[in-house]
Each structure stands twice: as structure tokens, then as C-alpha cells.
Amino acid sequence: MSIDTQTAARVAKLARIKVTEEELPELAGSFNDILGFIEALNEVNVDGVEPMVSVSPMRLKRRTDAVTDGNMQDKILANAPDAREGFFAVPKVVE
Predict the structure, then answer these.
(1) Alpha carbons 60 and 53: distance in angstroms, whole number
(2) Domain tally, the chain
(3) Pfam families in the record, alphabetically (predicted)?
(4) Does any domain span residue 85?
């Protein structure tokens, strides 16, 4: 696939990037370089290779997915300008 200057201008417009007519050939060349790199990556055989999330092999820490109240009600309500009976108190806005 090859990107011409018209396509580069359209991509620049969609990305809301201001590009002058003189810069379009260089932008199209950059797009073509990127596409060439992607095509080279498509030729790599990755059968049997597991996806990884990091370059260093480490397991992610996991915790049980349990719903809790956080046990921090007093700390949270300490920041409120007005708290009553364990809740934030706000002015009445509906009559």
C-alpha cells in the first residue's frame, strides 16, 4: 500500500493537523515508511509466542474482586464542609 499526497492531506485534515502543500510529500513519505515497517512486522513468524505486557517477566499482582465500603467513611467525611449521620449534607435544590 502506498500513500500519496492526497491521502496524506486527508489524514492530516482528519487529525486536525495543519500541513502546508510543501510539507505534504514529506508527510506522505513518513506514512509510507511507517506502513513499510508494519508490513515487515507482518512477515515475522509469531506462532507459539505468548503475548506479553512488559519486557521484564513478572506476574501481575492480583486481588480478589470483592465489593467493600473501603472502611474509610470517617476519613472521607472529614473533608466534607457539612456531614450528617454518615452522609454528605447538601443544600436542597428541588422544592
Answers:
(1) 9
(2) 1
(3) GatC
(4) no
